[in-house]
Amino acid sequence: xxxxxxxxxxxxxxxxxxxxxxxxxxxxxxxxxxxxxxxxxxxxxxxxxxxxxxxxxxxxxxxxxxxxxxxxxxxxxxxxxxxxxxxxxxxxxxxxxxxx
Length: 100
Known about the structure:
By secondary structure, this protein is mainly α. It has helices at residues 2-7, 15-40, 43-46, 54-67, 69-97.
């Protein structure tokens, strides 16, 4: 969906839709960036090979499972909402540009 926004060429008469689309894409990217930032502290420990310290990796995996599972669900929900809005706006723009 984000790639489709980047390559979309919108007529000037549909500026309001394009603006809404770009804001929604920006919010989607923000959700991805926020989640990625939270993931960084756990990333070395969540790999199959661990971080080199099996005890520390085990603790971090437990912390991830207990503390971050709500963030995963919330991020997933937000991404689905953003993606749906992006797809809807792209559909509206395409319909306005090519009325049948």
